[in-house]
From TrEMBL:
The keyword Transmembrane helix does not apply. PANTHER family: ABC TRANSPORTER SUBSTRATE-BINDING PROTEIN, ALIPHATIC SULFONATES-BINDING PROTEIN-RELATED. Transmembrane segments: none annotated. It comes from the Bacteria. The keyword Iron-sulfur does not apply. This is ABC transporter substrate-binding protein. Coiled coil: none annotated. Keywords: Signal. Residues 1-22 form the signal peptide. It comes from Falsigemmobacter intermedius.
Length: 339
């Protein structure tokens, strides 16, 4: 769903939201709306939808009639609007977009759990370009969300490290917002104007294998300290959790169910992922290998999140870095061994 269509969707359910807020304090929402994205980093929500894990957990909480709505978006901008308005209850987003919103709301938005850590790679098809510094200033780099996505902030961190603090925004003018499937298609078209794509799995593998001259010129992991860090999380407002404790618990438990399903059934998870993208070209076997790639990991436990937010602060994306990862996550996760 595009951002424009999403805003129309929000308008369409605004009345239902206002009625929900007008209900007695003990009543929970009659509908819960979640937003997801397109890469393997967001696979847990695709599993959650396919396996109806939320519906099962809602029934266990005594809420069998609660309706679950699903929408797909390219990046964090519309998700932020939806969460703040109350029309969207739970969103799957990159750690960077979540960090921006957590900082902006002074902790009124927190995470229900991590989803995945992975490798984000910048792919270009431009001849003669072997490293980031070689990119011409008129190139176009597709990212999930300009200014807030993990890929966009990785470019800022790289600019800081390679060119100095006065060049943090060096690559901003090159970035354009595109969903990963659209960026993949654009990179295959000589007339699209997009010649580089800061990917998330599996798009780097597909692009370097199928597009002439396509190659990786930067890894986000390299500029973020060389260690894996949580790349995607689920986020919600504290207001939603406080007003809807049973619904919140159902979503949180469904996330754990989804992560366990992926780790125990990579081939079945691959089938669900390919079906969600209407992808009949790629094999289940190869996609399952990508899911099981040791560079990726599916876990609700936060990994190197505080360190990552420190880098976001260095490039001006956020003002505050928490002393403890638990400041970012709801209490349901505090017993985990995160960092």
């Amino acid at each position: 769903m595009t951002e424009t269509r999403f805003r129309t969707f929000l308008a369409g359910i605004a009345l239902g939201t206002s009625l929900a807020f007008a209900a007695p304090a003990s009543a929970e929402v009659s509908e819960v709306t979640l937003a997801n994205q397109f890469s393997l980093s967001h696979l847990p929500l695709m599993i959650m939808k396919d396996q109806q894990f939320i519906e099962k957990q809602l029934a266990a909480q005594g809420l069998p009639d609660t309706k679950v709505n699903w929408i797909s978006l390219a990046g964090s901008s519309a998700m932020i609007d939806g969460l703040l308005s109350g029309s969207l209850h739970v969103a799957s987003t990159g750690t960077s977009g979540f960090a921006v919103l957590w900082d902006k709301t002074k902790g009124q938005v927190k995470s229900l759990g991590a989803q995945a850590y992975n490798v984000l790679n910048l792919v270009t098809r431009l001849p003669g370009v072997e490293k980031l510094e070689d990119l011409p200033l008129d190139t176009k780099i597709a990212v999930p969300a300009v200014g807030t996505s993990p890929q966009a902030l990785a470019l800022k961190i790289a600019a800081l490290q390679k060119f100095g603090p006065d060049q943090i925004n060096r690559f901003d003018q090159m970035t354009v917002t595109m969903a990963h499937p659209d960026a993949y298609a654009a990179l295959q078209s000589s007339g699209s104007g997009v010649d580089s794509h800061f990917t998330a799995p599996p798009f780097e593998v597909w692009e370097t294998a199928r597009i002439d001259g396509a190659k990786v010129i930067l890894s986000a992991e390299d500029v973020q300290g060389g260690e894996p860090a949580t790349g995607t999380v689920l986020m919600a407002t504290t207001k939603f959790r406080d007003a809807n404790p049973k619904t919140f618990t159902a979503v949180h438990e469904a996330l754990k169910d989804s992560v366990n399903f992926i780790n125990e059934n990579p081939e079945e998870a691959a089938k669900i992922y390919l079906a969600a993208l209407n992808n009949t070209k790629d094999s289940v076997e190869e996609t399952a290998k990508l899911i099981a790639d040791p560079r990726m990991g599916y876990t609700v436990t936060p990994t190197n999140v505080v360190k990552l937010l420190g880098l976001f602060k260095d490039v001006g994306a956020i003002k505050t870095v928490p002393e403890d990862w638990k400041d970012l996550f709801f209490p349901e996760l505090h017993e985990l061994n995160g960092n």
